[in-house]
Amino acid sequence: MITPPSSLRRSERSRRATLQAALDLCTEKGYGRVTIEAIAARAGV
């Protein structure tokens, strides 16, 4: 099995964390009250 480079794994983790943070915040606050800054802070990116 070929292992992807660590940068790809890190990128995928960041992408998933960002999407999850966006979904969580939209559920909590509603789409219109969510900011990019809040998503990034929640995702830790």
Compose a concise summary of this entry.
This protein has helices at 6-29, 36-43. With 45 residues, it is mainly α. The protein has one domain (11-43).
Distance between termini?
29 Å
Number of strands: 0
Please state the CA-atom Rg, rounded to the nearest Å.
Answer: 13 Å
Q: Biggest sheet, in brief?
A: none
| Poorly predicted parts | none
**Helical segment count:** 2
Estimated helix fraction: over 70%
Structural class per helix/strand content? mainly alpha
Name the beta content range: under 5%
Number of domains: 1
Which H/E pattern describes the elements? HH
The gross shape turns out to be: elongated
Mean pLDDT: 93
Structure notes:
The structure is a single chain. The protein is mainly α and 45 residues long. The chain has one domain. The protein has helices at residues 6-29, 36-43. The longest helix is centred in the middle third of the chain and has 24 residues, at 6-29. The protein is elongated and about 45 Å long. The N and C termini lie far apart (29 Å).
